[in-house]
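Forum > Structural Biology > Help requests

Title: Can anyone predict the 3D structure of MFS transporter?

Hi all, first post here. I have the sequence for MFS transporter but no way to get a structure on my laptop. I'd be grateful if someone could post the structure tokens.
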Amino acid sequence: MHLRHSGGTTPRTPRKSREHRAIGVIFIAHGAVAGTLATRIPWIQDRLDLSPSVLGLALLCPSIGAFTGMPTASRVAHRIGERRAVRLLIAAWCAIIALPALAPAPGWLFAAMLLYGAAAGMSDVVMNSHAVAVERAIGRPVMSGLHGLWCVGSLAAGGVGILAAHHGVDARLHLGLVAAVLLGVGIAGGRGLLPDRPAAGVPAPRRFALPNRAILAIGLVGFCGTFAEGASADWTAVYLTEVTDAGPGLAAASFTVFMTCMAATRLAGDRLVRRLGAPKVVRCGGGVAVLGGVLVVAARAPWTAITGFALIGIGVATVVPLVFAAAADRGATPGEGVAGVATITYLSGLTAPAVTGWTAGTLSYPAAFAMITCIVAVMTVSAGALRARPSGGAAAPDARPEPSESPALTTREC
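Reply #1:
Sure, ran it for you. Structure tokens for MFS transporter below:
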């Protein structure tokens, strides 16, 4: 049986508010899983006595798993219903987080990381597609706030992980407890998600489809924003140390400032979208991020660079949630659109740190962030791709689209 959501642009009701809270809980749980594992990688490396090259291969496995799993997510959601798919996949990812710490040998670690990546990619796709359906059902923007909650979950879980590592807690115990707690949180949140209802005669998503021009244009915006986000997150502390001679504490604080600015902007982003529309929000954010990039490139004092990174975080914060929301209206099905853009942004986040490092090593750190500033400028001038498609006739350029009759299927956030 084919299933779709019963959402539409209806007035807000207690039921719709419950569904909004439910998908918010899912985003928090997803972010918490993402923020937990990174803090225990050194423990896993020591336990298995992994060389840097073997550890590098292990850390590549999640990307391989995600790229393999993402294209299948919309078909899974079509077959069993998106609500059930979100619940099953978030539960799977919460449970799988315990496996890397339990791996007895490198081969088992590779397998665990592949599963981790596949579950991450598939759950990311279906929860974002479901979030678009909730946004349509409520009749107001919610995507930016949901991604802000993802950041909150990731930061909170990362803080717990740092404390656990500092106090020498066995990662098997730590990750096992986290898996159990987040599994319960995910199950509880899943109960309030939008219900599916039958949609007769709706074709299944294609097994493979190249993105159309609209998806590629939206993907370009997402690629540029995610590139700046990923590069800044990974290199801000190093930049302060190497360029401004900042001490370890101030360098670490720069990352915290960057992530906090991103999270706060995402939490406030929905109000901006309601007032200005997605294209204007991204254009204005791009201008702020370009200013931040100029400050970073020119900085020779730590606080100048920190201010620049904070502005970059503010400027690119809303890009990922807004490109997901726009993509749902441009694919053959909402799921195909979200999946296509998610794959593009994931590729950007994967390559950005390496490209930035190569440029910094070949030229200089300021040159690397001059490149990133140019990429943000491309994002700014391309923001028109996020303009909502008119739902018929005289729709305003930035109006929220009416839901289509297609099934609501599916596609480093912070």
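Residues 3-198 form a domain with the Growth Hormone; Chain: A; fold (CATH 1.20.1250.20). The chain has two domains: 3-198, 213-386.
Shout if anything looks off.
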